[in-house]
From TrEMBL:
Keywords: Cytoplasm, Cytoskeleton, Repeat, TPR repeat. The keyword Repeat applies. Its main location: cytoplasm. The keyword Cell membrane does not apply. It is found in: Cytoplasm, Cytoskeleton. The lineage of its organism: Eukaryota, Metazoa, Ecdysozoa, Arthropoda, Hexapoda. This is Regulator of microtubule dynamics protein 1. One of its GO terms (molecular function) is microtubule binding. InterPro entries: RMD1-3_a_helical_rpt (IPR049039). One of its GO terms (cellular component) is spindle microtubule.
Amino acid sequence: MMLNTRFAVVSESRRCAGSSAGTEQADAAVQTKHAFFMSSALGFLWPIKTISKQVGPVAKQSTSVLEKADEMFENGHYKDCYELLKETGDSQNVEVQWRICRALYNMSKEPKHDSKYKKELVFQAYKIIANELNFHEDNFAVQKWYALLLDSKSSYEGIKERIKQLETVKKHMDLAVTLNPNDATILHMLGEWCYQITELPWHQRKIAEVFFASPPHSTYEDALEYFLRAEAVQPRFYSLNLLRLGICYLKLEKEDQAKYYLKLAASYPAKSNDDHLANKEAAELLKKLQ
């Protein structure tokens, strides 16, 4: 169920949804690839690094710190970003707190850390964002990061817990898009949720039936609608959004539209692990269509 998980991360000012938070080498690359091909596991490709900025009212003294933290984040210096934000001691500032969560989450995607430490980072971030949610339900970034971190946390708690949290994850993504309907990243995340639910393997559907009177349901048409909306808001902002568009059109047997987006994904400038994955998968699909 994770995309990275990839849900991915890139320059926040350049894209709303980014590429991979750090190129996952060896095992991390393999893990991402498995999620990418969606063979048997529920695997969300969450955008990682550039989940867009959402700056609310902040005190003037905090503005420069936030700008510096954002710059560090966009340059991939997640630990430095985290430490700078922690040094402010501003535990009451929601703009500081959700950025701390963002930094922790991206640190958890760095291949240099072991799985135990990655889990600790995710749980630490989830605890912070869950607390912020109690006081800032109307904050777009809080809703978005709560959805992503709840999914990430539940992934460490087993497939049953992950499936159990599916509806809650989507609920908070829906709230986020209501607060900011023009954020390409959250629209992509909703498209990814719909895509993964549509692709859910039989045995995981049976697990879902245990937790829900009416298990989550979606279609490729639903996923396509969100991916198209994301593209309309910010054209070509994310290689995997282009890839997903191509795949959805293939699933719907619309080959011409599929080829159009797959060609865009195959030629997308590769600046991240996500971009390389999109390039490769799109090229392979195009070969099959020749």
